[in-house]
Write a structure and sequence with these properties.
- By secondary structure, this protein is an all-beta fold.
- The chain is 0% helix and 60% strand.
- The chain is built from no helices and twelve strands.
- Strands 3, 4, 6, 9, 11 and 12 form a six-stranded antiparallel sheet that branches. Strands 5-10-7-8 form a four-stranded antiparallel sheet, with no helix packed on it.
- A hairpin with a 5-residue loop joins strand 1 and strand 2.
Length: 166
């Protein structure tokens, strides 16, 4: 260490960077993890967004924190058109942060009753800029003439939020 020309202080909490300077280890840290789950069936024929029962609340510890939202949303849609689809979006409180995502299936035009069921993945890094309680939730809707169900057959959906601090 005596022979290095590095700047800064060498001790048990620092490391030697590539630019020959001692620096404190840093970067993001996970401050808290919260999970919300639901198995409650929600069905809609609405072409306007409706709330699912998939929500999770977190209170960030700093306005500079980021919130990593991870989730799995179980959805089923059915209709009589060969192009059956539903749409979903992610909200922070009443603000849409992942808008109008399509979830669909296409079949042969001669098929008249389509059912599509499965799990969709959610992954989004948010900057809520608040230390107030914050709710993340999923909404969904259908195309005209279709029907969509969230958590069909008691399948579980989940949202996990991780507060990342610097």
């Amino acid at each position: 260490i005596a022979m290095l020309s590095a700047t800064g202080t060498a001790d048990s909490t620092t490391f030697l960077r590539g630019d020959n300077a001692w620096a404190a280890a840093g970067g993001g840290k996970v401050a808290q993890v919260v999970m919300g789950t639901t198995t409650t069936l929600t069905t809609t024929t609405s072409t306007s967004y409706v709330d699912s029962t998939l929500t999770v609340d977190i209170t960030p510890s700093a306005t500079s924190s980021k919130v990593l939202v991870l989730g799995m949303f179980h959805l089923q849609t059915q209709g009589t058109d060969y192009n059956v689809h539903a749409r979903w979006q992610l909200l922070r409180d009443s603000t849409v942060i992942v808008p109008d995502q399509r979830w669909s299936s296409r079949a042969s035009p001669d098929i008249t009753d389509i059912i599509l069921e499965g799990d969709l993945a959610i992954c989004y890094l948010d900057s809520p800029s608040t230390t107030s309680a914050t709710t993340y939730k999923v909404q969904f809707k259908v195309a005209s003439g279709d029907e969509a169900s969230a958590q069909n057959d008691s399948n579980m959906s989940s949202l996990i939020v991780l507060e990342i601090t610097t």
